Amino acid sequence: MKSLCTAALVAITLWSAGSQADVLKLAHFMPPTHPMDVQVMTPMAQAYNKATAGSSEIRIYPAGELGPGPKAQYKRVATGVADLAFILPDFSADLFPVLTSYEIPGRYADGVQATQAMWENTSQIEAEVDRAVPLAYWANNATIMITRDKPVRTPEDLAGLKIRVAGKNMASLIEAWGAVPVNMSPTEAYQALSTGVVDGIYIGPTAFSSYKLHEVAKYATTNIPGSVYSFLLAMNKDAHAALSDDERGELQAVSGKALSIKAANAFADAGKTALVLAEDSGVEMISLTEEQIDAFMSKSPFKQGE
Q1: DSSP 40-78
Q2: Which of 28, 141, 161, 201 could cross-link with 146 by S-S, CB 3.0 to 4.6 Å?
Q3: Model-level pTM?
């Protein structure tokens, strides 16, 4: 009798272990309130989890729970620390010359246009992301200039100011305008601006809501010639290979170009809302004239359409 009970207990234990979903860890460094989590990653995970009916589950680890900051995200997913990861190619620009080429100022009107262009070049991007499986890639809004003490209307206004950037393209542009680029994670921007470590932040408008920059900024130049950021969602190769054919099909259905366009549009909508938040909070919104825009563009190290 005892042996029968033991056998039954073992059988139940094995059945329970086998019936649990395989958890896929999705890592990102942003707060869980960020538009990319709320409007893109969480809905994607929910759609996948529903479609797989418990055989596999994406679980999101936000705010650097699997490792802080954006710099090591590609390494985390390539080595299996995370099964999926949200990556800023700027922070590993030497590894992503194709993806970062979409960030050159003046090349695209907005993130949606840049995203469409990315998906016309899938073969080169997939070859570039050779340590993981690219699931989606897109761009966000063009960067704006957010400053604490000095309004920016001309390149001369930037002379000597320390400006937070991400990546070499933005750094080259800021240097050409006479400022000092400081490469920094967006999660560090609030503290850096509030304490005077930097004088300004060159970033997308969603930073007002995502990183609360409206609390420490006084000015925002909203149509300064800007760069778009490129983004990448990638999956560990072994984790991808371990999925069943059905699970890979469901993952493909909730990612790819459709998710990328959705993400670019989500950023566009969130950017508009964030600018309203900033203005309502007392941030002075500065809109440059065509002549002022030309003054910035004339100093750009990048040729139009490069």
Answers
A1: IIHHHHHHHHHHHTTSEEEEEE-TTTTSSSSTTHHHHHH
A2: 201
A3: 0.83
